[in-house]
Amino acid sequence: MTSRPRATSHAVLPALCLGAVVAFAVILMARSAAQLPFWYDESLTVRLSRLGSTGEIWRALSAGVEFTPPLIYLATKITRLLPGPETLAARIPGLAGFVLLSVFLFIFLRRRLGAWFALASVAVLPLAEYTVRYAIEARAYMLLLGVSAVALVCWQSAAAGRSRLAPVG
Questions:
Q1: pLDDT, tens digit, for every residue of 148-161?
Q2: How far apart are the C-alpha atoms of 79 and 81, rounded to whole Å?
Q3: What SS3 state is found at 123?
Q4: What Rg do the C-alpha atoms of the chain give, in angstroms?
């Protein structure tokens, strides 16, 4: 009978706990996202994502219909193809942004503070009112935060010389 070293199992435990916290939070937020009606700005996101092509979205944005970068409209266009209520499908990019933020903030903080402090820091995110509000909106706010967390980890890796691909991120 072989057993893994104790240090290895202790290193994996915070990541497993993070997965459980994030999964639980996403399930609860998705439930709320499916039930809430769209508000005015979200309806703009949905209407622009319904345009036929990426070129049409770009032309509408160039004309000043909306001033948010096009990533959210493309992501919403793709997720609206998923089955289920449109209120949930249009808000999936925000939920994905929450997952990105949680995972990459955990990675960033783990490298600086240790795994358990990183877990404690990230575990309070779903308790913040604005985190939940932005994660269940069909707007770019949480997706932007998630992509920013990815960029932060890439910067950290590049500064530490951990990866040659980090500057690309």
A1: 999 999 999 988 88
A2: 5
A3: helix
A4: 18
* Helix (H) / strand (E) containing 23: helix 6-35
Distance of CA 97 to the CA centre of its chain: 1
Read off the pLDDT of each residue in 128-140 and give the average, rounded to a whole number: 93
Between CA 21 and CA 99, with CA 116 as vertex, the angle to 5 degrees is 35
Q: Answer for the pair 94, 143: CB distance below 8 angstroms, yes or no.
A: yes
What dihedral angle (degrees, nearest 10) is formed by the CA atoms of 151, 87, 40, 71?
30
Measured at the CA of 101, the angle between CA 96 and CA 107, to 5 degrees, comes to 130
Q: How many other C-beta atoms are found inside a 10 Å radius of the C-beta of residue 64? A: 7
Question: Residue 136 pLDDT more than 60?
Answer: yes
Render pLDDT for 78-91 as a digit per residue (tens, 0 to 9). Answer: 999 999 999 999 99
Alpha carbon of residue 4 to chain centroid: 33
